[in-house]
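>> received
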Amino acid sequence: MTERLGRGELEAALRQVGAERYHHLHPFHQRLHGGACSRGEVQAWALNRYYYQSMIPVKDAAVLGQMRDPALRRAWRQRIVDHDGDRDGEGGIARWLALTDGVGLDRDLVVSTRAVLPTTRFAVEAYVAFCRDRTLLEAIASSLTELFSPQIIGERIAGMLAHYDFVDQGVLAYFTARPPQAERDSAFALAYVLEHAVTPETQAAALAALSFKTEVLWAQLDGLWMAYVEGRPPPGAWRPAP
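>> returned
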């Protein structure tokens, strides 16, 4: 980028990243939402996605560690509470475990994360490292995939309830609770990015950070596709019951 974008132009460019690169376009999600996944594929998705969910508070703690403004920290730490809860059995991670329980996975295996795909582990840990090592602006910009998540969550709830008899509203409680949080968080992050990305260089960095995050999400689905749709799980990864 050689010219500075106006606020509206920058927001439009960020939203275009989602339109072109968000993982709602991935064939695995289309398969999942359309009812074409086997039970084993749904289980593999839930198990691997748990690792991502469990590391989101770790990522947010890394972002929090970059913040010197108490007001900014107060706003951002709510994300950690949303995932961890204030006590055992609360929060997004607990709701995700209700999902993995509901689709028939052993909770100890899920929580151990020992059977996740290497692609999952590498992608998630790359995201945590990105948010720890890059600028605060880049870390916050990378979270803007939340702008696009309400759409995919709506598709997921409708599709999974329609097509999988082992899924019900209780199993999908994570997704019914998440949209208001994502809308709040994305509005906050977008306002921060629009305020602080004010040069061609910082605007390019923000757009690249968001693109990187879409790649983190896309890579996880690539791994699921190869391992469980094509039937080539790597050594040590979870395998569905025959």
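>> The radius of gyration is 18 Å.
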